[in-house]
Specification:
The protein has helices at residues 18-27, 45-48, 63-73, 80-99, 132-146, 216-224, 253-257, 283-297, 311-317, 319-327, 383-401, 426-443, 450-462, 464-470, 473-491; strands at 8-14, 33-36, 53-54, 125-126, 150-153, 156-164, 171-179, 185-195, 228-229, 234-241, 261-263, 302-305, 337-346, 349-351, 363-365, 370-371, 517-518. It starts with 7 loop residues before the first strand and ends in a 6-residue tail after the last strand. The longest helix is centred in the first third of the chain and has 20 residues, at 80-99. It is globular. The strands form four sheets. Strands 1, 2, 5, 6, 7, 8 and 15 form a seven-stranded mixed beta sheet that branches. Strands 16-14-9-17 form a four-stranded mixed beta sheet, covered by helices on one side. A four-stranded antiparallel beta sheet has the order 10-13-12-11, with helices on one face. Helix 1 (18-27) runs parallel beside helix 11. With 524 residues, the protein is an alpha/beta fold. It contains 15 helices and 17 strands. Strand 6 (156-164) and strand 7 form a beta hairpin. The model has no long low-confidence stretch (mean pLDDT 93). It has three domains: 8-233 and 347-410, FAD/NAD(P)-binding domain, CATH 3.50.50; 236-342, Succinate dehydrogenase/fumarate reductase flavoprotein, catalytic domain (Flavocytochrome C3, Chain A, domain 1, Alpha-Beta Complex); 422-523, Fumarate reductase/succinate dehydrogenase flavoprotein-like, C-terminal domain (Methane Monooxygenase Hydroxylase, Chain G, domain 1). The structure holds succinic acid. Succinic acid binds at residues 49-51, 252-254, 345, 381-382, 384.
Length: 524
């Protein structure tokens, strides 16, 4: 709000999506909160979420069913207690969003008008037409603007976390924050840092994510010594519009929930005989089937046939998608539209406990950047916004109980200097980022192999000097996140959920029924 970020803040929140804003709103009841966000405040993955928020709010639904669906999608790697927390506390958190002013689509009798998505045994997607993320973000930003204890600093990027101490005494006491793209990075102290910096889809050539999703949160936490888990589980959304001339545009899974079917050019359903749930199988299964189909035929895309859905229903449920596809020259009410899978969501991230605490004292994490144990090897559709709001709420409650003087005020030593960049050469930065995105798409995508993963690891290793020379925070974070994905993928020598390695096509239940955990430095 035009103010200068002070040298000391009580609680620093990194990121202004649903997790960061919910945490800020809750924490502002007992602390002064500074939200730092690297672009404009609404620019987050939340803002682009179309489908909705999964929660047990219907009369024919039960927490037990939501739990079972989440565990089934997660392919043996969900932490059951984390899932239990999610499904039990979810409905209460939906009520919080409504209390903050989020307006969800309603039935004529005033209940939630629910959507349906892959892997769910019931209709349980709370939605705001097809702009749920946008509506939630709007409501939360309005609530934040009215909250006296919260300040938002736009165009402030966290370059690195500030840590003191070694080994078990190591803790996070703040962060180095860069103001503007080429500004100076300044050390800012904080009693507690909440990392809610979102995902890393931009590590891949094709993604549904906006430009900000460059893995910054995972990269800074890893450099600071926090444990990172399950980065091999990158979710590819089955249906991004294939529009090579335009920016990426998602076709919500909720469209398939209403009856759209993935088909070949001759109209044959692609998922027939692949899975009993057909086009509404979980995303890992559907994305792999499309990938197989495209490789088999050499086609650049498959088709999504929505013509079986009543036109009025399409318009009522998906006004944005119908309008935007039309603007791009596709009429989904009249003919099948071209779609491809694209990187969408990182199920792994900064390892946390059930209260959002990372393994580095002083650092919390929530939202896509975190690995709470909810998603396991594959996230169930629309569980991400729910996880963000449930776990951000719990993290704020946990912080409320901790000693207010923790950390802050006890630091005498001058902080180490974060990497100081000379002015980055934009062409070189683009060249390096494109190279990483291409190699990740090629060798660390939907179907992987030992040779491809080894090739990617070597190529990334070979780029380290160029990355250091390029002087770009973002390129460094993309590179670091890519390395973490490859490192985790190489250590999982089986196929499970979103990680499919054709050299190890079967699940090895005994040895790999656990998370992949990576740590920089001691204990790594
Ligand atoms: C979608 O609408 O298909 C995306 C929602 C999600 O990723 O859960």
């Amino acid at each position: 709000m035009g103010d200068e970020l002070p040298e000391r803040v009580d609680v620093m929140v990194v990121g202004s999506g649903i997790a960061g804003l919910v945490f800020a709103l809750r924490a502002s009841a007992f602390a002064e909160v500074a939200v730092v966000t690297k672009k404009d405040r609404p620019e987050s993955n939340t803002n682009y979420a179309q489908g909705g928020i999964a929660a047990v709010v219907a009369e024919d639904d039960e927490a037990e069913l939501h739990r079972a669906d989440t565990l089934a999608a997660g392919a043996g790697l969900c932490h059951p207690d984390a899932v239990e927390v999610l499904v039990r506390e979810g409905p209460g958190r939906i009520r919080d969003l409504v209390a903050w002013g989020a307006e969800f689509s309603a039935t004529s009798t005033g209940g939630f008008s629910l959507g349906h998505e892959g892997g769910h045994s019931r209709r349980r997607i709370v939605r705001a037409a097809d702009r749920t993320g946008w509506e939630v973000e709007r409501a939360l930003l309005d609530a934040v603007a009215a909250a006296p204890g919260i300040r938002v600093y736009e165009n402030h990027a966290v370059v690195d976390l500030w840590t003191v101490g070694e080994g078990v005494d190591r803790r996070c006491v703040g962060a180095w924050v860069r103001i503007g793209e080429a500004g100076e990075a300044r050390p800012i102290r904080a009693r507690s840092v909440m990392l809610a910096a979102g995902g890393c889809g931009r590590v891949y050539r094709y993604t549904t994510n906006p430009a900000i999703a460059t893995g910054d949160g995972v990269a800074v936490a890893h450099r600071a010594g926090a444990r990172i888990a399950n980065m091999e589980f990158v979710q590819f959304h089955p249906t991004m519009l294939h529009d090579p001339s335009g920016t990426s545009f998602l076709i919500s899974e909720a469209v398939r929930g209403e009856g759209a079917v993935l088909v070949r050019p001759d109209g044959e359903p692609i998922m027939e005989g692949v899975h009993a749930r057909g086009s509404l199988a979980t995303r890992d299964v559907v994305a792999r089937a499309i990938d197989r189909e495209m490789k088999r035929t050499g086609a650049e895309h498959v088709l999504l046939d929505c013509t079986g859905i009543d036109e009025d229903r399409l318009d009522e449920r998906f006004p944005t998608i119908v309008r935007e596809t039309r603007r791009r020259g596709f009429d989904m009410t009249r003919e099948p539209i071209p779609v491809v899978p694209a990187a969408h969501y990182e199920c792994g991230g900064v390892l946390t406990d059930r209260d959002g605490c990372s393994t580095l004292p002083g650092l919390m994490a929530a939202g896509e950047v975190a690995c709470t144990g909810v998603h396991g090897a594959n996230r169930l559709a629309s569980n991400s916004l729910l996880e963000a709001v449930v776990y951000a709420h719990r993290a704020a409650e946990r912080l409320r109980e901790t000693e207010p003087t923790d950390g802050i005020g006890r630091i005498d030593a001058a902080p180490p200097r974060a990497a100081e960049w000379t002015s980055p050469d934009p062409q070189e930065v683009t060249r390096l980022e494109d190279r990483i995105r291409d190699l990740m798409w090629q060798d660390v995508g939907i179907v992987r192999s030992d040779a491809g993963l080894a090739r990617a690891a070597d190529a990334l290793e070979g780029m380290s000097a160029d990355i250091a020379r390029a002087g770009s925070d973002e390129a460094r974070n993309i590179w670091e996140t890519a390395r973490l994905i490859v490192q985790c993928a190489r250590s999982r020598r089986e196929s499970r959920g979103l990680h499919f390695n054709r050299d190890h096509p079967y699940r090895d239940n005994e040895r790999f029924l656990r998370s992949t955990v990576v740590c920089n430095g001691e204990g790594g």
